[in-house]
Amino acid sequence: MRTRRDFIKICSLSLGATALTGGVINRLVGANVPETSSSTLRPLTGGRRVPTYCEVCFWKCAGWSHVLENGQIQKITGNMNDPQCKGRLCPRGTGGVGMFTDPDRLKTPLIRVTKNGEQTYRQASWNEALDFIAAKMKAIAEKHGPESMALFNHGSSGKYFTHLLNAFGSNNVAAPSFAQCRGPRDTGFELTFGESVSSPEVTDIRDTRCLVLIGSHIGENMHNGQVQEMSEAIDRGAVIITVDPRLSTAASKSKYWLPIKPSTDLALLLAWIHVLIYDGLYNKEYVEKYAEGFNELKEHVKNYTPEWAYGITTLKPELVRLTAREMANAAPSAIIHPGRHTSWYGDDVQRSRAIAILNALLGTWGNRGGIFFKEGIKIPDFPHPAYPKPSWSWQDTLNGRYPLAKEAVTNTIIEASIPGEGKEHIIKGWIVSGTNLIVSIPLKDQLMKAMQSLDLLVVVDTMPMEITGYADVVLPECTYLERYDDLRTTAHREPTIALRMPAVEPLYDTKPAWWISKQIGERLGLGSYYNYKDFREVLDWQLKQAGSSLKEMEQIGLKKFDRKTPVYILPGSDYKFKTESGKIQLYSHELEAAGFDPMPKLTLHPQPEEGFYRLIYGRAPMHTFSRTANNRNLVALMPENSVWINPQVAELWGLKKDQYIWLKNQSGVISNFSVKVRITERIRWDSVYIVHGFGHHHKPLTYAFGRGVNDTELISNVMVDPVMGGTGMRGNFVTFIKDKSKKEVKS
Ligand SMILES: Nc1nc2c(c(=O)[nH]1)N[C@H]1C(S)=C(S)[C@@H](COP(=O)(O)OP(=O)(O)OC[C@H]3O[C@@H](n4cnc5c(=O)[nH]c(N)nc54)[C@H](O)[C@@H]3O)O[C@H]1N2
Ligand SMILES: Nc1nc2c(c(=O)[nH]1)N[C@H]1C(S)=C(S)[C@@H](COP(=O)(O)OP(=O)(O)OC[C@H]3O[C@@H](n4cnc5c(=O)[nH]c(N)nc54)[C@H](O)[C@@H]3O)O[C@H]1N2
Ligand code: SF4
Ligand SMILES: [Mo]
To answer: pTM of the predicted model, to two decimals?
Structure first.
């Protein structure tokens, strides 16, 4: 069927004129890349190391690009002074050069055109592409108001396009890292402690004596500093307790593995709270001094005994009591880890609240080995005029739902892009930068409908990911190794600033996002918001405010500053939490006022029918979502995902190791591709597990195409959290198809 916005394969275009020679790439990484036509690789610096911070995930480890005399990037290593990585990058960061050398990269701007009745892209100059975007944005603003432009973003580029939209007059800026990721945890912790645990998390894992991981799979979740600190804690004898239906890497290093029936964590958490209170194990002094609502909580959990939880979680009551005692023995040097990707079952804010309450009962917040106070360097924005005030904003797309959403909810911005009767706030144009919505957003029908209704869809990316096929204009950003970017100023134990600068000039006709944003802004008459010629000017000005300079940072890459505030609560001090009353909220009046349970209650979730297994998913150490799926260095380490199946189930189905099968979900959706069977005792019999980010169906991703399966396509049941709009994705069940004849997948 022909639609207004057909999906276009970028591979069908001839991109020869600007392609890099395979020979150059082969020499750079020793990869076997086919020869294309010629280009040059011009060194900016010769035979030296150039500071950067990693963009392969959002831990942002500071490091060095090592550039040879001839301008090749030889390798990337960690910066020894960086407390976030301590000089060591993870496999993905080390393999980051593969993002730069990938021959499938986007190479020139592209504009959608119709040729002989077929939609296709044509290569365009930057001027053409930018003029086109500015003209469309102006037309949208004239007809619907500037608020009708929205941005979806993730990663460094997001900041420049947020600035562009704010200057244009829109606040409709959303990222899947909220509603699809950490939103429930941040909301749950803010409701309880008045603030979230941030990124990088302020968990004092290094000095903890007991770390409890609830589905948080550090080790496969390769967030660098946490992995290193957990390994240090284990060496020092810390007790690790892991709650996971799967024997994760973390579970395999733990003193206790609690193989919980998936979706029942709240029952366990309530039972732990019950034991801490009724066995008198909680930190009485701390709770009395810093918390409110203890009596209500005590009454609330009266009947939530480990015996009550047993029938729900399948975890033995003795084990629940024993582990509660371990936490209490270590307290306050204990951490019930808040997790990060917490959009699971739609009651996730309440689960996060229960985790926050457990931390409060143990007195972990503000104590060594628990949760510390972060400190960072505040760097002012480069001076610009005040942003205009939009007449409506993302809050209006909530239509009275999700009252405690503190950040824009991707799903409601998508919904507001579908025209409908009586809709007051309608979105007509999107900029999508650094997020592959097709793989990261589970509500596919809604997403497709929204994209078909837009007047403008601009995608800024480095790779021809699935989302690029829906764009009117595709803008190729250069990779993080080829550009200056905003300073890294994340707050943690020590305040630091880290610089990212280009190791080489951008390949092909690619440009940094700061430049793209400025060019569009100037065409929109917003030049006063971009009062500089080059981003170096911005960086130098900002660094001088912090007592450094670009010159200094180009030499050292990372600068540490002295802390001015304490890391933990000082003995005898009268610490005020950032809640309205200054106290920890065991009972949440804010939730109550918004019509929700003030204390967490158990919701029972549907379980799989016979012949179906719960689909759960997670990370692998050598990949980041879909962003590394085509990275040849990392594909070499892990080429595809496999489906983890319990031996009992495999036997029942007659499944063999390494056999390829298809997965079919409860609504009849069949995976695009087949997936290899991994038979292992490490997964419960009622669930199967796959790593997210595989199963790409876009052929221009020549390495990623057809490798493994994509969890997102099998997630058709989404359980939305009524508190903040998070999309719970773990209520899907799959069965196995062994003999489906392999069909050609159209991309
Ligand atoms: N089914 C399912 N869905 C999920 C998850 C899951 O586990 N399963 N995880 C959820 C979570 S935790 C998160 S945080 C989100 C993440 O979702 P996304 O933010 O969409 O993450 P990626 O898949 O990494 O997409 C990143 C995009 O950025 C592009 N990119 C990489 N580097 C650059 C750059 O320098 N500049 C630009 N402009 N683009 C770049 C990549 O090519 C890719 O298209 O997904 C969520 N969705
Ligand atoms: N290597 C690598 N590291 C990454 C990323 C990456 O892409 N690659 N992405 C980063 C990002 S953005 C995020 S948000 C984090 C996400 O990482 P985390 O927050 O650590 O983990 P989740 O994705 O929430 O959960 C995955 C784990 O939950 C378990 N699980 C599934 N269902 C249940 C259940 O009902 N109960 C319990 N207790 N456990 C369950 C799974 O078996 C799996 O071990 O990882 C970060 N680190
Ligand atoms: S954890 Fe790994 S991928 Fe993430 S920023 Fe650090 S080195 Fe890069
Ligand atoms: Mo995430």
So the answer is: 0.94
